[in-house]
Amino acid sequence: MSLSKLCQNSIKILCSNNGSLHYEDLRRKISDSNSVSDLNLTTILSNRQLFTIVRGTENKVSESELTLDSRIIATTVIRLCKDYPNKKCQDCGELHLCRFFIFGNCKYAEGSNTCKHSHDIQDSHNWKIIRVNELQELNVNELRILLLQNDPSLLPEVCLHYNRGGENLRFGSCSHKLTCNKFHICSYFISGICRFGAQCRRSHSFRDDDTSALLKKFSLDHNVLHNLLLIYQNRNHIKQVLSTPGEDMKAVPRSPFTSPQRNADTEEICLYFIRKHCSFKGKCTQVHFSLPYRWQICKETWQDFPNMEEIELAFCDPNNITSSGPTCINFETMTCESHQVRRLSTPSSVTKPPHYILTTEWLWYMKNAFGKWTEYGSQDQVHVTSADLENVYLANSSDEVLIGEFNERLSFKEMCQKDKLSERTNGVRRRPRFISEQDVEKKLQSKVQLAQRQASACEPKNIPENWDKSALPEMGYKRIQLSQSSEEYKKIQTLFQGSMQSSTIQKIDRIQNLSLWEIFQWQKEQMKKRNGEHNVNEQFLFHGIRDQSIVNAICYQNFDWGSFAQDGTLYGKGRYFAKDASCSIFDLYSDSATNVNIMFMARVLVGQFTEGQSSYYRPPSKDGTTHNLYDSCVNCTKDPSVFVIFEKYQIYPEYVIEYTNNSM
């Protein structure tokens, strides 16, 4: 059997067995009809575009890193076209099929009514895509399984607000409650790693009333419903492997919040709340707490330690492995007796502009030959600083990297530094700089006093000429309504109505937020330095908002990544902006019932871009390194119409457009 035919057969067998099999089972099923060698089978399985591998723990296959119990998951890059059938779309490279046909129960599939959306996988458009991807051996049911576990836009995601908890066990901290379009189900259960089992306070069932009501909207057929948990687990494995290129999964599935990037969206403490003014309030997915750190112990639910500052002080000392006092915490295993312990914190200081206060300054230490912990960048460790290591760690948390002038190897996984010549190993520790509750209050007070002194001493720099200088608040923002006769209004009106002729603008407000503007200018300078001679490529782009309750929050603290539902995942997990206003409705989770619509027109630094993928949590590398990244992702590089931004400092929300649709 040729390798090409073996590859097609393997995909068909996997899809006919609910999307995945252990290696031993896959080999046996293939051998039932054709003999196949381990060498040939492992060769075709190395194609990461077609197969995702979760390595097991049993005996290895000959001449391979795979084990007999490695899980093999069918993977594909093809997706359903989001623009079909509402817009004209030709040769887009994505399938033009009815979404409910893929779910398995389109109500127009039988009887006198005929669905206006295609159910034909063999029409000229769809069959071309299927053949190019060598999936022509799959029947409809097998293709259905393949798409459901690969296309992130088909099935609902898990609600992070629900999983963040709260006093309400049914809804957690989700403000949408019964109208939420995401699953209220335990994220650890759906990933296969919930340690509480039946004792977990979050739902472990797709049959709960709220989850069942949401599933009814999707009309999933019986086979899909029966295997829904496996589909989600396969989705999770595929997503994790795609987000760490070149690596297979370990035997035990990782938590959705394992890496620093993943943790940032769900278990970071909100900087705005500490400063007493998070405008997103209950919609914010970050943790609201009064200190830049929070120590908790898991006893059925996460509970705060009473002596939090005392624990933090002990943790900040690199000499300590455990805390003292009545509750002894092991900082290496993060346990207290038999209970799991966690430390939540504000974002790392290296990820924010220099003037941000109450970020967490992480310090890196190495144990020298005399058993003394010395900070990197001190007299004994002059070749690399804590800030240098922190930046590398956030990008390479599971890797081994070379540092310093002598190219010592530092393993973040083992937390040790190895001398290149002698192979001597020295321990490494990452601990925060201590800040007390009293220090927090002093920093907050000094920040307010500094802002007041700057406001009274002189006019801030770099204010745009068109701004109203009499409406510049010391903190926050002002919305200035534009006159319909002004050139500024007419310019925005022309750009908006270029694709929204059937809509009527009610008013346009200019957002004057000096803090966001200065951060935006700072980011522009950083991009100029980073890109060398390349332009930062600043563009005016649109973003539609259906949930009007977050509009003022965006004006105040920008499109905050940790504060409301993500726009989509087709080209990456960031904020989506469009050249045309008509293509800019990205806010999919809405509870607004008003007829007045909201659209932002923002300045966006798109910089150097590349085509996006659904697995991206940040732009990919330009040259294979972990630091030289693209600035944004797009739907196509030749003439992009959609831009995905992963860093909010590249955005300044400049105008709020209120409009109505004439057809309503």
Number of helices: 19
Largest sheet: 6 strands, antiparallel
Report the helical percentage: 25-40%
The CA-CA distance between the termini, in Å, is 61 Å
**Unreliable parts:** 244-266, 587-593
C-alpha-based Rg, rounded: 27 Å
Q: In which order are the strands of the major sheet placed?
A: 9-8-13-12-11-10
In round numbers, the mean pLDDT is 81
In percent, how much strand structure appears in the residues? 15-25%
* Class from helix and strand fractions: alpha+beta
Number of beta-strand segments:
22
Shape: globular
Task: Write a structural description.
- Helices cover 26% and strands 17% of the residues.
- With 664 residues, the chain is α+β, with helices and mostly antiparallel strands.
- Among the domains are: 1-155 and 218-253, no CATH class; 362-432, Signal recognition particle alu RNA binding heterodimer, srp9/1 (2-Layer Sandwich); 478-661, Phosphoenolpyruvate Carboxykinase, domain 3 (Alpha-Beta Complex), CATH 3.90.228.
- β12 (416-418) and β13 (425-432) form a beta hairpin.
- The N and C termini lie far apart (61 Å).
